[in-house]
């Protein structure tokens, strides 16, 4: 059978598909799962090859059960994956008051006020905003510092920015299971970035460091300049 342009297209599409899947899972806890699955498949393949009937039967049946178990255990990742696939393309809905945000973050970091700030992009964050106090306020650095001042009723939880305005504060974000050893504020930032395309800023109360969670990954501590550059790039601001 001759090699046609269809075969070439097929190969290119399959390569692109596997590459995108790899990009989606690398750095997340699903990577360990993929490694485990490869080992499982290898053992199953060898059991079949060597004619080990019982082992091959057990592994074959466990695979069916395992598929259901995986759907349950990895429900947050699957949700994030489908959400990413279905996300509308095109210009991102944000006209963020970037400098005001950066000034606020710098002051929060200086004073070591713990803060969690999500920047909504294409994934609507209304369901998370509803868990806190909806404010719909004009964003200012002073408002951010006031919000996260320790002891105020709204300082607990995360704030959500939509199109440069402060949509809500005191919101509950989903906690990530991906990185053990992280505190809950950082896990909440990571968690929201796993299930949405939001950029989530965390200011650590302990160290004053500023980190950015994006696509299920948490950056190392960033300087204000690095943060500005990343936000400008991500938001096309
Ligand atoms: N699910 C959540 N959604 C939003 N905010 C949360 C959530 N869980 C915890 N937080 C916030 O994180 C705070 C606790 O932070 P904690 O000290 O445990 O985390 P951390 O990552 O070590 O941060 P830090 O470096 O600031 O100490 C809570 O007071 C609350 O404001």
From TrEMBL:
Domain DAC: residue ranges: 75-224
Reaction it catalyzes: 2 ATP = 3',3'-c-di-AMP + 2 diphosphate
A GO MF term: adenylate cyclase activity
GO biological process: cAMP biosynthetic process
PROSITE patterns for the chain: DAC
Domain of life: Bacteria
Keywords recorded for this protein, A-Z: ATP-binding, Cell membrane, Membrane, Nucleotide-binding, Nucleotidyltransferase, Transferase, Transmembrane, Transmembrane helix
Family, per entry: Belongs to the adenylate cyclase family. DacA/CdaA subfamily.
HAMAP family xref list: DacA
Protein task: Catalyzes the condensation of 2 ATP molecules into cyclic di-AMP (c-di-AMP), a second messenger used to regulate differing processes in different bacteria.
NCBIfam families cross-referenced by the UniProt entry: diadenylate cyclase CdaA
Name listed for the protein in its UniProt record: Diadenylate cyclase
Originating gene: dacA
């Amino acid at each position: 059978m001759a090699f046609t342009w269809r075969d070439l297209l097929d190969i290119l599409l399959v390569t692109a598909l596997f590459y995108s899947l790899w990009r989606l899972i690398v750095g997340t806890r699903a990577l360990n799962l993929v490694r485990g699955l490869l080992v499982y498949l290898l053992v199953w393949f060898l059991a079949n090859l060597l004619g080990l009937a019982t082992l091959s039967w057990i592994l074959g049946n466990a695979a069916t059960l395992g598929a259901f178990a995986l759907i349950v255990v990895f429900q947050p990742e699957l949700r994030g994956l489908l959400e990413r696939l279905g996300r509308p393309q095109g210009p991102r809905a944000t006209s963020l008051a970037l400098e005001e945000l950066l000034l606020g973050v710098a002051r929060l970091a200086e004073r070591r006020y713990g803060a969690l700030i999500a920047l909504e992009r294409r994934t609507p964050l209304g369901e998370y905003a509803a868990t806190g106090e909806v404010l719909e306020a004009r964003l200012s650095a002073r408002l951010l510092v006031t919000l996260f001042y320790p002891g105020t009723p709204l300082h607990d939880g995360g704030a959500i920015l939509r199109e440069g305005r402060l949509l809500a504060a005191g919101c509950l974000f989903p906690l990530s299971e991906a990185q053990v050893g992280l505190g809950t504020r950082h896990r909440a930032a990571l968690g929201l970035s796993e299930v949405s395309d939001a950029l989530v800023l965390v200011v650590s109360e302990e160290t004053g460091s500023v980190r950015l969670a994006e696509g299920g990954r948490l950056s190392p501590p960033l300087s204000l300049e690095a943060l500005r550059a990343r936000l400008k790039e991500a938001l096309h601001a």
